[in-house]
Amino acid sequence: MDFIINYLDLIFHIDQFLPAWVQAHGELTYGFFFLIIFIETGLVFMPFLPGDSLLFMIGALCSAELLSPELSLLVCLSAAILGDQLNYTIGRHFGKRLVHPPYSKWIKLQALQKSEVFFAKWGSLAIILARFMPFARTFAPFVAGISQMNRVTFTAFNAIGAIFWVLGVGLLGYLLGEIPWVKAHVQVIVLALILGPGVLAIWGMLISQGRGKP
Q: Per residue in 83-104, pLDDT tens?
């Protein structure tokens, strides 16, 4: 319970945590960024890490000249691309075993099933679209591996998706992070980045199901 409380505190107060971390740890901060993004995208049982909100805050800190934009971009892109490659490889070689007991207790099967439906609907494009959707971002490369998607095709869409995700969310933080209103409501923005994509995805699925009914 303490872990959950501490994690939620980190998520909703990431605007206070990151600047203090940067000032205390200097260049080690980039290693922390790499680790968080790499683990979220690379390990199918770790979909709850704060990828979107972290990228937004990295952009904001770059705007405030507390971080190097060039190095931040390189670190985040590398972590996002390599993480998905690892996740794909795990799914390709071990996925069918991991979705069954005793390993399945570490994987949210409901989220995995939704990702499979999403992947079946959008095909290769799902690798790009899933970058902007919590949980689906972690499960999409795993599902691609299980389905034996061509590695070259996956790598291409993986790189494109990582560029759009890192640049898109990071640039949003860079351009808006120093605006007084945004700085005063960062916690609300972080919450929207966490919940918004998931709510939109559920809404879209409900609409699709409604249209499919006779």
A: 999 999 998 888 777 766 665 5
Provide the domain limits for residue 204: 2-212
Sign of the torsion angle spanned by Cα atoms 54, 58, 64, 66: positive
Domain count, the chain: 1
pTM above 0.85, yes or no: no
